[in-house]
Structures are given as C-alpha cells and as structure tokens.
Amino acid sequence: MNLGRVRGSVVATVKDPGMVGMRLLLVQPLDTNRQDTGSCVVAADAVLQAGPGDLVYFVASREAAEAMEPRFVPVDHAIVGIVDALEVHP
Amino acid sequence: MNLGRVRGSVVATVKDPGMVGMRLLLVQPLDTNRQDTGSCVVAADAVLQAGPGDLVYFVASREAAEAMEPRFVPVDHAIVGIVDALEVHP
Amino acid sequence: MNLGRVRGSVVATVKDPGMVGMRLLLVQPLDTNRQDTGSCVVAADAVLQAGPGDLVYFVASREAAEAMEPRFVPVDHAIVGIVDALEVHP
Amino acid sequence: MNLGRVRGSVVATVKDPGMVGMRLLLVQPLDTNRQDTGSCVVAADAVLQAGPGDLVYFVASREAAEAMEPRFVPVDHAIVGIVDALEVHP
Amino acid sequence: MNLGRVRGSVVATVKDPGMVGMRLLLVQPLDTNRQDTGSCVVAADAVLQAGPGDLVYFVASREAAEAMEPRFVPVDHAIVGIVDALEVHP
Fold this sequence. Notes:
CATH architecture of chain A: Beta Barrel
Helix content of chain A: under 10%
Largest sheet of chain A: 5 strands, mixed, barrel
Radius of gyration of chain A: 13 Å
CATH superfamily of chain A: EutN/Ccml
Low-confidence stretches of chain A: none
Strand order of the largest sheet of chain A: 1-2-3-5-4
Strand content of chain A: over 45%
Structural class of chain A: mainly beta
Largest interface: A-B, 34 and 32 residues
Shape of chain A: globular
Oligomer: homopentamer
Number of strands of chain A: 5
Mean pLDDT of chain A: 91
CATH class of chain A: Mainly Beta
C-alpha cells in the first residue's frame, strides 16, 4: 500500500455502471517524509469515511477491487485505511 | 484510476481478435495540476462516448478488462468515466 | 496499452516450457511524439506478424497472457495490434 | 520481489475489515547498493517477525495477497522474507 | 518481460513457506543498450539453471507465479529464459 493525503473528489455522470454510487476521491501520494510525490490518483473510498486532508493508505493494482462490494468492478486504486499514527525508526 | 485527456484515436487492422470493434483512444495522463505527465497510453473506451478533449479517468492493470464486455480481453487501460468536475481542497 | 516500435528479436534455448514456439520481440516504448522512452521490453507477438520497424501497441501486466494461446503462460508483455494510423488532436 | 528495510509501523483504527489484526510496516525500498530509493510503502508482514531495521524482500502487486491468510484481502505489498545474506558478483 | 543480468543470490532463513527450496537471484535490469537501469530485483529462477553473469529475461507482476510449480506462491519476479542472442535492427 502507499501513503497519501485526500485532496478532493471527482464528479462524473458518464461512468462505468460498476462505479455508480462509489465515492471517488483525489489522493496525492506521499513520500517517506510525507511530502507530495508523483501525480494525484482517483481512488475509490473503501472505508466510506475518508475526507479532505485525511492521511490514508491506499491499495493499487488488481487488489484494489478486493476492497469493494461487489468485487468485480474496474477499480485499481482504493483507500483501505485512515492513518492514526506512523511510528518511524530512522 | 488516473486522470487523463483524450488526444486522439488509433486505427489498426491487424490486431487481437478480442479487440475487434473496440474503440481505442490515445489518452494523455495528467498530473495534479492537470498538466501533461508521462507518455500517452492507448486505452479502450468503456463508456463508449469519450471524445477528443474530454477530461477522463482511466483504470490500468488487470482491472481494465473488468470494464469491457466480454471480460477476457487483452486490455490493460480503459476509460471508465468522463469528469464533470473536480473538487480540490488544497 | 502502450505504443512501441519493434527493434529486433530474442533467441533463447533455455526457457520456460510455456514459451516454446513463441515469437519474442524487442519493443522500444514510445512517448506521445513517438520518440523513444524508457527501456526495451521483451514482448510476445500475439498477432504473429509484427516485424522490425513496425509501430505497434502492446499490453502489459497480467492481461498480456490473455492474448496468448494457451493462456496460462508466464508472459507480461504482448503485442496485440499493428498501428495503421494515429489520429491526434493536439 | 524488491529489497527493503523496515523503518516503522502504521497504526490505523478505521480500515478494511480484511486488515484487522494484520501487522502493517513501513518499508523503505533499497537499490542495488542498499541505498534508499523511492518512497516508503506500507507492507503487510507475512512472516510475522520482521522488525525495525531488518533487511527484507517484499512482493508487490496481486501476488502479495497470496502470502496472506486468508488470501482475499486488499493487500498489494507483503514482506515474504528476511535476508540473512546477499551474495553479489559484481 | 525485461532484460536483466544475474548479479548474485539471496539467502533467507525466515521466509514464506511457499518459497522454501526456491532459488532467489539478484537481477539487475538492463536498458536497450544493455546498461544497468533501475534497482536490482529479487527474482525466482524458474529455469533452474541461471547463474551469475547470465543475460536473462524475467517476467514481473502476477504472471511470474505462472512460471513456478506449484503456482500459488507469492512471487512477482521470475527468470523465464536465458538469452543466447539478441538480434537488434536499429
């Protein structure tokens, strides 16, 4: 999984039927020092309560769909946890 | 999923049988500020109505095939939504 | 899928049994302006007629195996189309 | 698989039900010379005994879930070995 | 698949049960001109006879496990061929 911060959301009328009712959030990936790295991704919110500013971890690739209900949806990024704390041993 | 903008289309006579009749579009990936990033990909149009200039989000990897009918096709990028609006909280 | 140009081929005697008889080509990925980008990949030729110099599109990740017959082979890049024309709307 | 070093752990209350009880560690990917490269990932600890400072190898993509019990979990990075020694022939 | 050169091997006592008895090699990915590019990966040796210095091609992502026996193992990189010759048409 990767760390990211929720930056906003995506509104789409024309979309795959498997995505109707799914919350789609803009997530900025973060590096080890929690600085922005790379481009925002559009992730489904599998925990249903992530919001702007939250530090989250998201799963990518085929496993993202495992977090959704039902599972056979064209989703390749999903938020699967909201981070309370990071314990770092440098 | 990633944000992208439709830039054109691909014409191919010799192709995998599973791709006959499929619309293949050139999509330029975009970064957080909607600037071009990386190289264009060739994506199947799963929503069937994306056109040049549209801001879309596309799914990559194995899940792209989930957006197609039938599903067992060699597709690893598919457009699954046309963006109406992005709500960004910087 | 990604755009690429066929640059050559690979000869291997010792290989996975699932790859015997498979044509393996060296493919150079191309960017939006059809310039070389990144490193050559070794792709199976699923259309069976790609040759040196051809502009092709190839599928990566797990879906590449979907283009092969039989399907359960350790292949993660496959050429699935030869490009006749690109229509680009800049 | 990739080489990495365990840097810490992640605490999350709100998470996917499939992740309850799973140890999630922060892993810094390493390059050929064992220097940091890229950003930390959040990996499940499939060997159940990796700790801060350990040199490990982790599996990414869909295969990471194969290392977990049960297997149908939204995990895309898992630690599957702790390195005792690297034999390098430069 | 990608081209690489075998650089060494990995010794691990604590590892996933599915990896017991599997040869794990350090492989340096190569670019089009056979120069080092990116970081070494840890790949399972599916051809069972790759050794230090060999020019090989390896498969990544979920398809790597297809090269192994049995198949349900947490492996995402596997060597599936030893290169005898590359025919390059520049």
